[in-house]
Amino acid sequence: MDNFKVELDSDGILVCAFDTVGKTMNTFTKAALDDLMAIAERAKTDAAVKGVVITSAKSNGFCAGADLEEMLGGAWESGTLDKTDPEAELKGAFAAAFEMNRVYRALETCGKPVAAAINGLALGGGTELVLACHYRVLSDGPKVQMGLPEVKIGLFPGGGGSQRLPRLIGAQAALMAMSDGKSFKPKEALAAGIVHEVVADDQVVEAAKTWIKTKGDPVALWDKKEFKIPGGGPYHPAGAQVFMMGNALLRKQSFGNYPAVINLMHAVYEGLQLPIDSALKVETRYFAKTLMTPQAKAMIRTLFFSMQAVGKGSGRPSGVPKTEFTQVAVLGAGMMGAGIAYVTAMSGIKVVLIDRDQAAADKGKSHCEGLLKKAVSRGKMTEDKAKGVLDLITATPDYGLIKGSDLVVEAVFENTELKAGVTKLAEAELAPDAVFGSNTSTIPISLLAKASVRPENYIGIHFFSPVDKMMLVEIIMGEKTSDATLARAIDYVLKIKKTPIVVNDERFFFANRCFIPFTAEGLHMWAEGIAPTIIDNVGRATGMPRGPLEMMDDVALDLLVKITSETAKAEGANYIPIPGEGEVAKMVADGRLGRKNGKGFYDYPEAGGNKSLWSGTKDMFPVTMAEADPKQAEELKKRLLYIQAVTAARCFEEGVITDPREADVGSILGWGFAPWSGGIISLIDSIGVASFVAELDRMTGLYGDRFAPPQLLRDMAAKGETFYGRFGKADKKAA
Ligand code: NAI
Asked: 3-hydroxyacyl-CoA dehydrogenase NAD binding domain: from which residue to which, for each copy (predicted)?
């Protein structure tokens, strides 16, 4: 047996330590499942075995779930979304998916008590394995967590989790945990009734053995005659309530965009009415059905495979040695600079945080201190660690302290001359191979690089706000930026545990270029007389985190007015004004700046609580559509999503972005683009380029040229291409 280290102790307890071959973390491969089946068989047939303990031989966790890469055979990665025979595919998926249920159930019914000694993280199939054990002891280690996060990649628990968890903790608690993919820390898992004991890490195996020796019961709760579902099953009045409320809640939260969540609900509702063996089959049937949906396929590809690849720096040129960073200088200690200093120090790098005077620099450092205090108060960090991080940051107005920095990140006001000035000051102190990165959000990198004596070392490193929370960083190549500089900028972004995408130097780069049209489309709708509440409700129903108008309030209306006027200036005669932009400028002139001062499209009560629509919106554009029927709502949703997607297609045509994986991952991490779609490019691929072009042509006729499909899309439609087919690459630079 290769994947479990098995030892029969003197009490007849078979201790099986999981150790997946060739993997740093335990995951269930086909071979590991076969080995587990052999353990179940041995427990069943070998009289010397009195009980079984399942634990992990790896120091970094118990089990992270199924090995998706092996199970899905790379099909999602390569972009072959369309299979020729869906019927056969569904049957194959059922057979493959049922394997985990068959093996776990064999262990559960082996006739000997089975205890799980969970000595580390157990997620997905790992948590499902321990739910199939009769007893669960969990380590109290700081990094330990359990949970069923499958919905986050468009699936739901398909290894018995959707059936065993509700039988263990009740349908309501189980549905809530599974539909958000919630994870439980040891104390929470104990309080929720998911585990029986929480003990020190080195005691888990002993505690599991003790249970076997003293109480060992080989029959699962749900296999006992007297078993009742906690809180009642679907036919029980309280249980039925859970499903009625659950359905309503689900609709409210996910707008029916996620087939996984709908199928999870079906599986739980139907499964709870059946004995466990039939219930597991029901689960697998819905699981396989989910796996076949375009949403699950696209989500798995983007949120699992591509997220891993891009998160490891898929766009990094090879052949450049990895850079270690000992000191980074951050210019400008404002909102962005302070955030950048914080995330840099958090990864153990010394930071010189520079502003115009000591007070301004100190203000930036205090911001870091505030973030650290919050982390300590939430139990996420020890006081010592927080102090260590803060000590790494030196706040100063003295440019001389930049000396010795491997990298400078510039985040001063958005002003070309000012940025040129600080570039010169910083470069005077820098070693010739140090990298200079600008966090500009709108000024072309090639223009800023003109101020640099080493334009090949000059690059854009564009963070998103708030820096401590937002995972995406756009790396922008200027005309003269070298590959070595690109590699080093990516090394920095990976070091601070963020996800880099590589984009070329066009106005607004990639993320803002695609996102701004979403808000602009909201303004078009407002000016057409569509009620703001409809616009925002429909906006949220697309799967975007907020509707366009409330999103504008969050960004700040004055900033949007500034961006609009600068765009108009830059585009000159080519600028096409957006209906409603004058009205927003008027709102700003009247002191309505958005959420930050409590007044924008909405009024935000000072005491907190729900916002309400500002009554003045209807004086600016009288409402002509106060209600939208389903067909109208569908059309509005399409406008909000397609205007972003067509912009992304233009970015590919212009070479602003070149890797569909980066576009998809970037769209979800950068501006929360409808995750159910798998990202902005997967949306087009799953619609089909030809159908997308036909829709764009129709919408251009109705709403204007902003929807016009670029030539690239027409060419792709003519050839029957997909974005992943045409632009997909395993390794960007090697290709
Ligand atoms: P901010 O106004 O909060 O901070 C700018 C800081 O630069 C101020 O503390 C100011 O005192 C300092 N500064 C001005 N002249 C300086 C000099 N000569 N030497 C050193 N420091 C100087 O602005 P924010 O929002 O942090 O933006 C900074 C940059 O980041 C801008 O280029 C902006 O476009 C970009 N950006 C902003 C985002 C946002 O959401 N606010 C997002 C991404 C990029």
From this structure: 327-505
- Say which CATH topology domain 4-292 has: 2-enoyl-CoA Hydratase; Chain A, domain 1 (3.90.226)
Residue 154, Cβ neighbours under 10 Å: how many?
A: 27
pTM over 0.85: yes
Are 405 and 327 in contact, with CB atoms under 8 Å apart? yes
507-548 per-position pLDDT tens digit: 899 999 999 999 999 999 999 999 999 999 999 999 999 999
| Any ligand 1 atom below 6 A from CB of 336 | yes
Query: E strands, 227-343, where?
Result: 327-331
Question: What is the residue whose two structure tokens read 């409603």?
Answer: 580
Mind telling me the catalytic residues?
462
Ligand 1, closest atom to CA 442?
A: 34
Q: Is 417 in the pocket of ligand 1 (CB under 6 A)?
A: no
User: Is the CB of residue 687 below 6 angstroms from any atom belonging to ligand 1?
Assistant: no
Domain 327-507 fold: Rossmann fold (3.40.50)
Assess whether the C-beta atom of 402 lies below 6 angstroms from ligand 1: no
Q: Where are the domains of the chain?
A: 4-292, 327-507
What is the distance in A from the centroid of ligand 1 to the CA of 141? Answer: 41
- Cα(331) to ligand 1 centroid in Å equals 8
Question: pLDDT tier at 730 (50, 70, 90 boundaries)?
Answer: low
pLDDT tens figures, 652-703 = 999 999 999 999 999 999 999 999 999 999 999 999 999 999 999 999 999 9
CA of 485 to the centre of ligand 1 (A): 23
Q: Shortest CA distance to 664 belongs to which of 141, 146, 330, 305? A: 305
